[in-house]
Predict the 3D structure of the following.
Amino acid sequence: MILTLGFFAVLVFGYVYVVGKVWRGESRFDRDTPAPWWPFSLPLWRGGGRALPVQGACSLLLIGAGITSDLIGTDSRYYDAVMALGLLGVLGTFLLAFPIMYFNRPKVLVPPAWRDEPGAVEEWRAARARRR
């Protein structure tokens, strides 16, 4: 239990550190060269970078809810509420992070340096128009 909580604390502090750098525009994220393990397109790589703050928060919410639900047990009266928070983490990924990746919306959740960029869908449409 202590090891799990320590690991989660490291994840939270790492998230705050990385997102702070991303939000201030100080990250070393190479938007034009995807990592070797990235199986998707370059526009989705850029979109993933834009959505990092939201994806990270949703992932931490899901992981934290899982750890908390395990600690309180299924017999607790708060179990369902904690599991609902975990569901919010999953829904946040689909309702917030994916629109940021694909459409760069909502702008308020996109790091300020990347708010004026096109989303992945717009990049794909522009590439298709250039090919014609």
Observations:
- Residues 2-27+41-131 form one domain.
- The two ends are 58 Å apart (CA to CA).
